[in-house]
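Module 6 notes. Inverse folding takes a fixed backbone as the condition and produces residue identities as the prediction. Think of it as a translation problem where the source language is geometry and the target language is the twenty amino acids. Below is one complete input and output pair. Work through it position by position during the lab.
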């Protein structure tokens, strides 16, 4: 569960300050599939980065499972990100020299939590529909398949929360729908908590709830 209280993010100072978030409070329950939507510049990606510990707020608190993660040390936050959170971005950022299979299990190697990650990588690739692409390299598969591989990579450490920032923005309509249906399947079948930033109006049909932002505030 994510609990946010009075989250503020300001870039710059004085008359040159940009107020990206203006005191946001919200709650996202475990197992929810939530979309964060709004116009460009509304604060969507900034909010996602704060929730995912990819950036620091000017003030406010972010608690995950009743733990204020902003109070963790830098090392503690890095470990929390690796072990508890998964990320999917518009850019797939797969390593070109590695196969799809190897790309997926790289984060598990970094965590060194157990020795089952290779089998888990195969299992996840089956779930995302890439069981027949294990030995392929990123340049040998489509953009939609690369994004599904990126999703599998984000899931390898069994994260509590999956954050997705414009995950379909670089995809054609058919590939985007496949990715969204995959998210919905993961949410329903695996009870995966997902927080997704999107600007596509039709994406709201796949989620449980939409958080609308405007000028750094939640629209009620």
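Target side of the pair, the amino acids:
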């Amino acid at each position: 569960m994510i609990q946010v209280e009075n989250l503020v993010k300001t870039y710059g100072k004085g008359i040159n300050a940009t107020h990206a978030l203006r005191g946001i409070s919200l709650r996202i329950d475990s197992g929810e599939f939530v979309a964060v939507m709004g116009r460009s510049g509304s604060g969507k990606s900034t909010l996602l980065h704060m929730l995912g510990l990819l950036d620091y707020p000017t003030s406010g608190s972010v608690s995950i499972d009743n733990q204020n993660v902003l109070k963790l040390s830098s090392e503690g936050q890095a470990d929390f990100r690796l072990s508890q959170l998964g990320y999917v971005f518009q850019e797939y950022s797969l390593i070109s020299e590695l196969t799809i299979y190897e790309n997926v299990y790289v984060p598990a190697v970094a965590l060194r939590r157990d020795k089952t990650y290779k089998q888990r990588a195969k299992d996840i690739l089956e779930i995302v529909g890439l069981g027949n692409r294990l030995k392929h390299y990123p340049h040998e598969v489509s953009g939609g398949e690369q994004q599904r591989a990126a999703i599998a990579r984000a899931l390898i450490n069994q994260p509590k929360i999956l954050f997705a920032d414009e995950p379909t923005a670089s995809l054609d309509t058919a590939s985007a729908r496949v990715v969204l249906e995959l998210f919905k399947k993961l949410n329903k079948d695996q009870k995966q908590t997902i927080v997704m930033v999107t600007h596509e109006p039709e994406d709201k049909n796949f989620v449980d709830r939409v958080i609308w932002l405007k000028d750094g505030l939640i629209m009620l």
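Reference fact for the lab report: The first strand starts at residue 2 and ends at 11.
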